[in-house]
């Protein structure tokens, strides 16, 4: 062993030191990679172009090549500008406003209603005298006693025990109890109690007789006075209600009244006793039906659809068979004169079925509403279905002046008119004409047509076409959605 030679362990690498990086190997470029690079950079095209022009090959990145790139960029920029202009034209159109109209304006002071005072109530006078309560019914303290008895249910028990309700008590519970309808009572429990009181005394037993003897009933005059005091704006024929967005949002006196629920419940209760007493004449019931239908356009009442549906069903059932056909036409004409030909009319037509079901009277009401709306829109004096169908199917979707939004409304209304009841189900010529037009709308509107409501018309026509095929076979389905 040589003394100057390193020891065995000194030849080993120090484990604490990092390992030296591996030596880099030069990448070998194959022929395939060279050819790929050659074709991707476009040098072959430059050579062919140079050979055809009779000049020598240009170098990559020359002025001529840069000029071609700039020309392509200019063309692309002009194309983008053209697309932006078309997009601005589409955005410049007026958007379709959502459904909703202002049904209630500012609240008004109610008219003074003639009414017997509760101080003349014999039942309460005998009760106070017999129990020695010491209350004077002619004072405010005595009226407070009545309110307490009403909210606790004792007033109803006394009436049921006696078998009759006096006019003074009935009138007080309706119009004078904190002005249940004509003022906005802050006591919600009092409103509910008064409404329950009237629901109970207007209920029928198993023999279709009133549970208690009632002489005083809520008249049409009282109910109309109440709805007008709420600021109802929909009562004038020929006057379109203003959009809901135009209402004064910061005014506490504008908008749906708080006790409209009590009004709807009392109207519904009055209609249910038609077999015992006809409280409203047919013309009065028609006006009440118009009022309830118009409430469907108030966005502030969306949460009351169930209550409005019950009231609507009661009003529709109030008419007998002989009265309904003519009254339904009158109601449809009145609504068509007031509602606008936009999403609001579709809202009314669809909601009537959604909240009331598919009763035959409801179907007839929907078809008459669609008929009268189309009649007014086309300016026809007579509601000729064949003529309306011809006017709708004559709309050419290829024309630039085609109003697709109006066509969308026409499609829904016409389909509702034809299929809401069985009047036209057996008329093959009308149904086939309608199906052919739906097929035309669903196939002739291009997918690239970005005009207002063009895609919706195409989709709606395709959807209605499937429903028309099903209905013709004898089924029944609601094809008009909002």
Notes on the protein architecture:
By secondary structure, the protein is mainly α. 56% of the residues lie in helices and 1% in strands. It is built from 20 helices and 2 strands. It has helices at 8-11, 31-40, 43-53, 63-92, 122-131, 140-152, 154-162, 167-176, 188-201, 220-229, 260-271, 282-294, 305-318, 321-338, 343-356, 360-378, 385-393, 404-419, 428-444, 454-472, and strands at residues 164-165, 213-214. The chain has a two-stranded parallel ribbon with strand order 1-2. α12 (282-294) crosses α14 (321-338), α14 (321-338) runs parallel beside α16 and α15 packs antiparallel against α16 (360-378). The model is unreliable at 53-60, 244-251 and 474-482 (pLDDT under 50).
**Backbone CA Rg:** 39 Å
Main beta sheet: 2 strands, parallel
Overall spatial form: extended
Strand content: under 5%
Helical fraction: 55-70%
Distance between the termini: 103 Å
Number of strands: 2
- Average pLDDT for all residues: 78
Structural class: mainly alpha
* Low-pLDDT residue intervals, each spanning 5 or more residues: 53-60, 244-251, 474-482
Biased composition (Acidic residues): 1-15
Region (Disordered): 1-24
């Amino acid at each position: 062993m040589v003394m100057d030679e390193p020891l065995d362990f000194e030849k080993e690498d120090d484990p604490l030191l990092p390992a030296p990086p591996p030596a880099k190997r030069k990448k070998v470029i194959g022929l395939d990679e060279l050819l790929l690079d050659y074709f991707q950079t476009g040098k072959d095209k430059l050579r062919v172009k140079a050979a055809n022009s009779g000049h020598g090959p240009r170098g990559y990145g020359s002025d001529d090549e840069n000029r071609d790139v700039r020309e392509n960029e200019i063309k692309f920029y002009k194309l983008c500008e053209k697309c932006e202009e078309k997009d601005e034209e589409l955005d410049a159109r007026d958007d379709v406003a959502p459904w909703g109209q202002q049904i209630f304006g500012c609240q008004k002071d109610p008219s003074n209603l003639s009414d017997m005072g509760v101080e003349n109530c014999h039942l309460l006078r005998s009760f106070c005298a017999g129990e020695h309560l010491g209350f004077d019914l002619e004072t405010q303290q005595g009226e407070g006693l009545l309110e307490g008895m009403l909210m606790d249910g004792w007033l109803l028990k006394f009436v049921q025990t006696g078998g009759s309700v006096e006019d003074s008590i009935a009138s007080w519970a309706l119009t004078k109890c904190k002005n249940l309808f004509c003022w906005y009572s802050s006591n919600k429990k009092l409103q509910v109690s008064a409404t329950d009181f009237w629901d109970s005394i207007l209920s029928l037993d198993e023999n279709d007789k009133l549970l208690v003897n009632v002489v005083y009933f809520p008249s049409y005059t009282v109910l109309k006075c109440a709805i007008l005091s709420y600021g109802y704006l929909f009562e004038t024929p020929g006057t379109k209600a203003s959009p809901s967005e135009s209402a004064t949002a910061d005014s506490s006196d504008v908008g749906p009244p708080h006790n409209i629920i009590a009004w709807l419940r009392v109207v519904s209760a009055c209609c249910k006793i038609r077999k015992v007493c006809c409280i409203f004449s047919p013309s009065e019931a028609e006006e009440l039906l118009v009022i309830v239908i118009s409430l469907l356009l108030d966005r502030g009442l969306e949460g009351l659809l169930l209550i409005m549906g019950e009231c609507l069903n009661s009003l529709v059932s109030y008419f007998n068979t002989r009265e309904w056909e003519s009254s339904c036409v009158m109601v449809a004409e009145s609504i068509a004169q007031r509602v606008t030909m936009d999403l609001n009319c579709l809202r009314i037509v669809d909601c009537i079925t959604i909240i009331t079901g598919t009763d035959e009277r409801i179907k007839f009401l929907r078809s008459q509403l669609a008929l009268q709306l189309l009649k007014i829109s086309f300016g026809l004096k007579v509601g000729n279905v064949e003529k309306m169908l011809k006017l709708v199917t004559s709309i050419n979707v290829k024309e630039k002046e085609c109003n697709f939004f109006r066509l969308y409304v026409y499609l829904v209304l016409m389909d509702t008119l034809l299929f809401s009841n069985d009047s036209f189900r057996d008329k093959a010529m009308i149904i086939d004409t309608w199906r052919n037009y739906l097929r035309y709308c669903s196939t002739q509107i291009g997918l690239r047509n970005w005009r207002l409501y063009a895609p919706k018309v195409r989709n709606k026509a395709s959807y209605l076409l499937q429903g028309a095929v099903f209905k013709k076979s004898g089924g029944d389905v609601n094809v008009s959605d909002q």
